[in-house]
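Journal club prep — side note

Before the paper discussion, L.F. wants everyone to see what a predicted structure for a comparable chain looks like in token form. Sequence:
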Amino acid sequence: MRKTHYIAFRNFFHKSSSTPSTKPRTFTAYSFVPFSPFAMLDPTILTLGGIVLGIAIIERILERWGVIDLVDQFAKVMRFILPVTFYSALIYFFATFMF
């Protein structure tokens, strides 16, 4: 016949361990804000990049066709749009993914 040994719940949790616990070694860990390049696959960033890329491709096509007047107009617009788009996307990226 088997004899059952009962342990009180309080004694079970407050009982010291039969094997001595080893202390983990301490080490210095340096942290860095995690940054993933996949964060650039945000739909807003991709849309802005696609629009700018599309305008640049249209400008090249018009240049090959010899429509220089339109190419000059696109160049004037791109001189303003490119920096504004770049800095806007950069601010959006840092505001969205870093905080």
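L.F.'s comment for the group: The chain is about 60% helix and 0% strand. Keep this in mind when we get to the figures.
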